[in-house]
Amino acid sequence: MAITTRVRNVGKTLYFLILSLIIGRTIGNPEIWFDHDLATQLGNILYGPGEIGADNFYDLYFYISIITDLSVTILIYFITVKLFRAIRSEF
Q1: How far apart are CA 59 and CA 79, in angstroms?
Q2: pLDDT, tens digit, for every residue of 41-76?
Q3: Rounded to an integer, what distance in angstroms lies between the CA atom of residue 91 and that of residue 43?
Q4: Percentage of the chain modeled with pLDDT above 90
Q5: Who contacts 42 (Cβ-Cβ below 8 Å, separation ≥6)?
Q6: Pick from 29, 34, 24, 35: which is nearest to 70 by CA?
Q7: What sign does the CA torsion over 41, 45, 50, 56 have?
């Protein structure tokens, strides 16, 4: 019984990681889909006016990408896990 639980947990973890990789590659670079003016405003809030440079922009875009990727992955993961549970409980 403990081995079955361990295998299920490892399977769920692998599913989450693979789903995250797929979503991250599908979304693409945040420089393309995120508004530059909004990034500038966020940079001014986080780093202060006049302190935003190219390195800070790349850091900001990285953080935006990670937050978006994890949010979408968690949402899709929970939906699919609930769907799998509903399908398994019917049989």
Answers
A1: 30
A2: 998 998 888 888 888 888 999 999 999 999 999 999
A3: 52
A4: 54
A5: 60, 64
A6: 24
A7: negative
